[in-house]
Amino acid sequence: MKTNRSTLAFGLALLGAAVSVVAAAPKELPIPPATEILAKLRPGHPRLLASESDFARLKERVATDPQLKEWHAKLRAEGQRLLDQPVSKYEIPDGLRLLSTSRRVLDRQQTLGLLYRLDGDRRYVERAWKELEAAAQFPDWNPRHFLDTAEMTHAFAIGYDWLYDQWTDDQRPVLRRAIVEKGLKLGAACHRGGTSYGWWTKSEHNWNQVCNGGIGMGALAVADLEPELAGEFLNAALKSLQLPMRRFAPDGAWDEGPGYWNYATSYNVVFLAALETALGTDFGLSQIPGFAEAGMFPIYATGPLGKTFNYADGGEGTIRAPQMFWLARKFDRPAYAAYQRKVASADPLDLLWLAPDGAGKTDLPLDRHFREADVVTFRSAWEDRNALFVGFKAGDNKANHSNLDLGSFVLDALGVRWVVDLGADNYNLPGYFGGQRWTYYRLRAEGHNTALINPGLEPDQDPKAAARITKFESRPDRAFAIADLSPAYAKQARQVKRGIAVLDRRQVLVQDEIESDQPMEVWWFLHTPAEITVSEDGRSATLTRDNQRLVARMLSPDGARFAVMNAQPLPTSPQPEKQARNEGIRKLAIHATDAKDLKLAVLLLPLREGERPADPPPGLTALSAW
Ligand SMILES: [Zn+2]
To answer: What pLDDT was estimated at residue 332?
Structure first.
């Protein structure tokens, strides 16, 4: 790897300036015309994600591999349960999204289809038909929220293709017509332009992968009988999909956060995998720089409790991602497979893609800086529930699904998540994705574990700001990163920097340097589900949770005191109705007024039973000397 990179750099240097200009612009992969794409189509079915012989091989492995056997049993239990479940209905519970219906139909097609392939039990086919027959009669698949259309098309593509030989001559056209009329035609229209719902074709985030991937599955399923439409769509999709795929460079991180990493990569991988099985090639898309690294992101963004560093809109729940197996095989990365094997919940794609995991050993470095997304994680150990873990970010407030969370962090230790990100609020709140977005506490800087300067009604970080991690070092005794947050607070301060250091893999120093020509009002916040007790002098606070303790000690500035607050907007902040109340979460806070050159430093020390804080605390040095 190193050799390759330095060779490349050397080559570019020799070739001179003209080449650097070309190299700077992301290269678009050439995509052949529709007829050439379709000329590669494998005749017959199944051809999506697996062939007849792939399924036959899986059936043999399921009989002998203990892991597959276990998942197969779980999948069977789910299949049995499904036999008695009512079919999905056309339901738009929030007035906008059919999405949970689309996903349910997809889950059921994958489960029932794979079970039929493994067990040969016709009841699965009959149940799958009932589900498809009902959804084929829906008035539409809700194209105004196009994810719903794409996921339903994906569901039909799998149902049609995996059970192709089981459908009668009357059933096949029903399924094909639904794919074409309710999915593929609309997807092609999106790429032609002029629809009100086709904006995703130019987007660089999860919508692109899901919509191109879902409709793409439909196109691959019917390409032999609907060549014109399928060819047109695939040609356009293979060009469009490169936009979000380039966002994985250079290190595989995703600026929409871990939750959307999962959604985006799931469809990205399903589509590439189906291109390979149906056409024998992904036209080079999997080689787009950064994509091979994508599996590193959930590994590092997950702490010792299985909770993610859930920046942007997203929960902290464990990422279960069968695509990790596919990525592990594709790029020979046993670590990706080891990750997924530990968290898998017997998804049909887990069975299909299970990959060797190198005996499950993790010998990856403890710390990692994901460039571009500018996310850093530190930990004291892998495979230890009690390990110390810190996720810290700079990044771009313009990213899709972003929160105003530049400089924020989470912290796990001793089996507790002490410092939390509250995650997304309800997507159906008024203007959540529009003009009111930055009025909601959970999306504002004040709802995060970062600084607040001269707060008021306005967004409390610049929503257009991007901030960089300017320094990152990883040593056993001292690992740290520094974020230059100045762009986020350009209106309020001359310079804002935050450094977070993990000392001896045991305690965490959070140090802020905030400078302004005008006196500032500054708040420092840390959100926690723990009980907080502040010492009499206000200089330390003890957080208690699950019989564990974490002590916060204020090292700077002199004279300031810790306070405890609810996780609620400041009185001067917007107070939108109906937002989450964040009950059970408290804030440890520091408030400074009339500050011009403020150095805030807090030491966070998880304490095992009977353990006392080391005295004295480490001396402070300026961030410029870190
Ligand atoms: Zn957040």
So the answer is: 96
Residue 371 neighbours by CB distance under 10 Å: 15
101 C-alpha to ligand 1 centroid (Å): 27
Question: What pLDDT was estimated at residue 25?
Answer: 60
Beta strands in 371-492 (DSSP E): 375-379, 389-393, 395-396, 409-413, 416-419, 451-453, 466-474, 478-484
Concatenated DSSP letters of 597-617:
EEEEEEEEEEE-TT----SSP
Q: SS3 breakdown of the chain: % helix, strand, coil, rounded to 5?
A: 40, 20, 40
Distance 151 CA to ligand 1 centre (A): 27
Q: Mean pLDDT across the chain, nearest whole number? A: 94
Measure the CA–CA gap between 445 and 442, rounded to whole angstroms: 8
Q: Distance from the CA of 313 to the center of ligand 1, in angstroms?
A: 6
- pLDDT category at 202 given cuts 50, 70, 90 is very high
3-state secondary structure of 355: coil
If DSSP codes are grouped into helix, strand and coil, which group holds residue 450?
coil
Ligand 1 centroid–CA 420 distance in Å is: 9
Residue 525: name the closest of 580, 584, 446, 425 by CA: 446
The rounded Å distance from CA 17 to ligand 1 centre is 41
* φ/ψ (deg, to 5) at 540: -145, 160
Distance between CA atoms of residues 46 and 221, nearest Å: 9
Rounded to the nearest whole angstrom, what is the distance from the C-alpha of residue 401 to the centroid of ligand 1? 10
The residue among 565, 389, 409 whose CA lies nearest residue 485 is: 409
Give the distance (Å) from ligand 1 centre to CA of residue 424: 6
Residue 15 has pLDDT above 90, yes or no: no
pLDDT in tens, 100-137: 999 999 999 999 999 999 999 999 999 999 999 999 99
> The pTM is what?
0.94
C-alpha of residue 525 to centroid of ligand 1, in Å:
13
How much distance in Å is there from the Cα of 355 to the middle of ligand 1?
A: 33
Q: Are strands 531-534 and 540-545 parallel, antiparallel or unpaired?
A: antiparallel
DSSP reduced 3-state for 531? strand
Token representation of residue 608: 């095992």
Q: From the CA of 383, how far away is ligand 1's center (Å)? A: 26
Cα 299 to ligand 1 centre (Å): 20
DSSP 146: H
One DSSP character per residue, 297-348 reads HHHHHB-TTS-B---SS--------THHHHHHHHHT-HHHHHHHHHH----H
| Residue 134: alpha-carbon gap to chain centroid | 32
Q: Which two tokens stand for residue 379?
A: 């930990």
Distance (angstroms) between ligand 1 centre and the Cα of 373 equals 15
C-alpha span between 608 and 419 (Å, rounded): 17
CB proximity list for 481: less than 8 A, separation 6 or greater: 369, 376, 392, 469, 471, 472, 473, 499, 500
Q: Are strands 451-453 and 507-528 parallel, antiparallel or unpaired?
A: antiparallel
Strand-pairing partners, residue 396, are 466
- Angle of helix 185-192 versus helix 206-222 axis, rounded to 10: 130
φ and ψ at residue 503, rounded to 5 degrees: -100, 125
Q: What are phi and psi of 450, to 5 degrees?
A: -150, -175
CA of 371 to the centre of ligand 1 (A): 19
